[in-house]
Structures are given as C-alpha cells and as structure tokens.
C-alpha cells in the first residue's frame, strides 16, 4: 500500500477498568472540555474574574451542550436510529460518536447564558474568553473521531490519505478495499489550531470585545467546516437541495458571525467597562488580558456618549 495514515486498531477505541468500559472518544471530549475550561478561566481571571467562576458557568453549559450535540446529530440522521428493529437506546450512545458541534453550540449557549446570569458575568465577555478555547477543545475532540474510524472525506492519492477498513459501515460500497480517504479529522484539527493563533492575534491587535471575537470564531469555524463537509462522504444526512445539513449550519454560523460582528461594532465603540453584569471593576484588572494605558482609556471614555451597556 502507498504511503498513508493507518487507522488505529479498533481495540484501541476503548479499554476496561474493572467493570467500567472507558471509550477513547469520550476521553477526548472530556479532555477538550477541561482544556477549554482552564483556558477560559485564565482569560477571565486576567480581567479580574474570581477563581472557579468558569466552573459555575460550565455546570450549566456542558450538560446542555452535550444534550444539544446529541439530539442535533440524531435528528439529522433519523434513518440511523429509527427503523424497524432499531435499538432506541442507541439514541443516547454518545460514546459511539455522533455529537454535532452545532448542536452543542446551541445547547451550550443556552446553558452559558444561564450560568453567566447566575455568576454575574457578562455573557459576551464570557463568549469572547471562550472563543479560542472552543477551537482548542474541538481540535482535541477530533482525535476521538480518529479512534472511532470516522469523519473522513473523498478518496485521495495524497500521502496523508487515511486508511479505512472495507468492513466499516460508512465505507462506500463502490470502492475497492485499500482505498484511502482525506483525513477530515486531521484537517479540522489543523484548521482549528490555526484559528486559535489568528483569533488571539486579532484580539491583541484590535482589542476585540463585546462578542466580536466570538463572532469571528463563528465565521472562521463555519468557513472551514463548510468546506470539510462538502468533501465528506461518511455522513448519511442530506438536507435541503441535497446539501448536507451541516453545510447549511456552517453557512448559518458564518452569517450569524458577520451579523453579530456588525451589530456589536456599531453599538459598542469603546472598551468593555467590566466583565461583571453589575459593572464593578476589580483592582488591577485588564481588558481581555491586554494591558491598556489608563490615561488613554480615560481620555477615550470622556469623548464617548454615555450608554447603558447590557448583555
């Protein structure tokens, strides 16, 4: 076989700890969540947030995000779960893969809003702190797709083609054994990590706040995901006009990101006065982790019209 990327032994997808079965896919997701939590907490702490506040928020965001991710996947793959003789418990088998990012964004946003209200943190301040952390979490989570032998694209002759066994249920029936495919999980990992660097660079250069950084996250991720889904052959969902649902969702993410960026740019011309909903500013806090010139901030504020800012 020509040079290519081998898929891991299927036995590596899980291991046993006594009576407990541990799935590598679930571990990747959990690791991504922990990484995102630590990064977001550090970014908020640099602006004066209390230690542990992110944990208070993700206690709402993560469960609702997981529920949203799973149900989005199930309802865009109805034929995989609802058919004569189907085991309906498979609907809840998240360890077998099938957790849609866009569903997690929807559910997680609801949970984050609730958590932010209870913790006293501005929702958009939290969203901006989370944006690069989300890309890190998604990059880590995509490793789980590798162990599950999923998320691959069209056949390729490139040296980094991914080997998929012909017995895989998602292996196209009209292709010969030994065909290798574009490793979409790897492409997305690279795209997401590049996005982290770009978002942080733009944040530092333009002092992006008020949800503008999160808006750019939606644009970046949506653009990359729309291309990846366009060359993906393992999904079973065809949406409107035979275009996969995730492509439409990617277009929606890009459009939403552009709209949010325009709205926040027009309505919020200055720096956030505080990440807290009650407006308090802790001593020695900085904006978005970027040191500001106090005199310049004061001069800028004096030239801006008074405005009541909200979430």
TrEMBL record:
One of its GO terms (molecular function) is phosphatidylglycerol-prolipoprotein diacylglyceryl transferase activity. It is a multi-pass membrane protein. Pathway: Protein modification; lipoprotein biosynthesis (diacylglyceryl transfer). Keywords: Cell membrane, Lipoprotein, Membrane, Transferase, Transmembrane, Transmembrane helix. Pfam families: LGT (PF01790). It comes from the Bacteria. GO terms for cellular component: plasma membrane. A 1,2-diacyl-sn-glycero-3-phospho-(1'-sn-glycerol) binds at residue 142. The keyword Transmembrane applies. GO terms for biological process: lipoprotein biosynthetic process. Residues 273-311 are annotated as: Disordered. Its main location: membrane. It is an enzyme of class 2 (transferase). Catalyzes the transfer of the diacylglyceryl group from phosphatidylglycerol to the sulfhydryl group of the N-terminal cysteine of a prolipoprotein, the first step in the formation of mature lipoproteins. Belongs to the Lgt family. This is Phosphatidylglycerol--prolipoprotein diacylglyceryl transferase. It comes from Agreia pratensis. The lineage of its organism: Bacteria, Bacillati, Actinomycetota, Actinomycetes, Micrococcales. The gene is lgt.
